[in-house]
Design a protein that fits this description.
With 438 residues, the chain is mostly helical. The protein folds into two domains: 194 residues, Growth Hormone, Chain: A (Up-down Bundle), CATH 1.20.1250.20; 193 residues, Growth Hormone, Chain: A. It has a two-stranded antiparallel ribbon with strand order 1-2. The longest helix has 32 residues. The radius of gyration is 22 Å and the shape is globular. The relative contact order is 0.14. The N terminus is likely disordered.
Length: 438
């Protein structure tokens, strides 16, 4: 199946005489405006800008629902709240791990925009259903868990479609910038969403958070309808199982993709426990409370946004593989230093740096996979990458949590940081694979 193609060229409206003008006749720009232009390079593409704006609005709604849903589960489950909070999180992630590979095959066979629209419709319906159940006071814990599974199913099929749609929205040279900008909107929403949720909970009640999340999906739906894209059906279509095996075999025999997929799993498996353990550090290490935890989260979030801005500003550059591995190595060092340090202001700085490195690694991994993946199997390649990337998060947190009960959270993070650096060092010493990617 050929890639979705824009029906326009981003520079088609630029008169030829400007392209031929001498350099000295062009308007001068300040270093600041030039820097801003580099950071926002992908936003110059009309389709990407429209979809980015819609996704930002929807992400704020999603984070609102995350806050309200956790509080709802806590209210409904009573003494078993810890179990049901974990179960709700697991049931939301399980369909993504189970069905994303199938979603990747379908993304290569069908119109990606239509697949994304169906995913948004389902998620919007679950949000409005949850709002109605809460509003009429008939909500039960099994309702919440069932709707989490349905939402996860929708994301399993919408995720690969969204990932494989990006190359149709921007030129390949601006792909790292586009991925970094997506990371920026997600992390900004992570800050804004809970704040709006808190205000909505106080002023209007819990049902309002779910209802507003449902409304936020309209922004993505309208953006998808307004995209200037056309779909070219695949010339031939084999059985779904055969196409899935073709995608798996392609990744397995492509050293660069295999290395990037392994790195994605290793980074989330070993790196995300840093954020998982922040409440424990706030309470047990620094003898603080919710305010201390919020402060640490703020430093991690600020670092994440800063790291995404750096990737967006840098764009596509030579030696991207080596740069990625260097940042991964640094990330591991920062994680270990954070675990060993007991001075709060130093820990805050280390957490800021670790948050920046984590997002930079995530953005560069995704960019390199997008660059290598061929158009006719991009959905399958991205779905394999997403399973590794998303799978490392719950598994890593589960293993790290178990090990922390046997030792301690600082000990687990120290070991994880060392392993992160060793993985990066191993890839740096290899003769082929990730190190040589550009």
């Amino acid at each position: 199946m050929q890639e979705l193609l824009p029906s326009y060229h981003p520079h088609a409206s630029t008169p030829a005489r400007y392209n031929a003008a001498p350099v000295l006749d062009r308007p001068r720009t300040s270093p600041l405006s030039h820097g801003v232009s580099r950071i926002a390079a992908a936003l110059k593409y009309r389709d990407f800008r429209v979809l980015w704006t819609g996704a930002f609005a929807s992400s704020i709604g999603t984070w609102m629902q995350k806050v309200a849903q956790s509080w709802l589960v806590l209210t409904l489950s009573g003494s078993a709240s810890a179990f049901y909070l974990g179960l709700d999180s697991f049931l939301g992630e399980a369909p993504i791990l189970l069905f994303t590979l199938i979603g990747g095959v379908i993304a290569d066979r069908r119109d990606k925009r239509h697949l994304l629209l169906m995913s948004q419709y389902v998620q919007m319906t679950t949000a409005f259903t949850l709002a109605a159940l809460v509003y009429f006071d008939v909500i039960r814990i099994w309702h919440v868990l069932t709707l989490s599974v349905i939402t996860g199913m929708a994301q399993a099929f919408g995720g690969p479609a969204h990932q494989s749609l990006l190359p149709a929205l921007v030129d390949k040279e601006h792909m790292p910038n586009a991925i970094a900008l997506n990371s920026i909107q997600f992390n900004l929403a992570r800050v804004i969403g809970p704040l709006v949720a808190g205000a909505a909970l106080t002023a209007f009640g819990m049902a309002a958070c779910f209802g507003l999340n449902g409304v936020s999906f309209l922004a993505v739906i309208l953006a998808l309808f307004s995209l200037h894209l056309r779909h070219t059906p695949a010339a031939t279509q084999r059985r779904m199982g055969e196409e899935l095996r073709t995608g798996l075999n392609y990744v397995r025999h492509e050293p660069g993709l295999m290395g990037l997929t392994f790195l994605a799993f290793a980074t989330t498996f070993l790196g995300t426990p840093l954020l998982t353990f922040l409440p424990l550090f706030a309470q047990n290490v620094f003898q603080g409370g919710v305010a201390q935890y919020t402060e640490l989260m703020a430093f991690a979030g600020a670092g994440a946004v800063s790291g995404a801005l750096v990737v967006a500003w840098r764009g596509r550059a030579a030696g991207m593989g080596k740069t990625l591995l260097g940042i991964q190595l640094t990330f591991g060092v920062l994680v270990s230093c954070f675990a060993l340090t007991r001075v709060i202001w130093i820990n805050s700085i280390l957490l800021f740096g670790a948050g920046a490195c984590m997002v930079m690694v995530f953005a560069m991994l995704s960019s390199l996979v997008q660059h290598i993946a061929p158009n006719d199997m991009r959905g399958r390649v991205m779905s394999i990458y997403m399973v590794a990337f998303r799978g490392g998060m719950p598994v890593g947190s589960l293993v790290a949590g178990y090990m922390a009960t046997r030792t301690s959270a600082p000990t687990v993070l120290t070991v994880n940081g060392v392993l992160l650096s060793l993985v990066a060092l191993w890839f740096l010493l290899k003769r082929d694979g990730v190190r040589d990617l550009t």
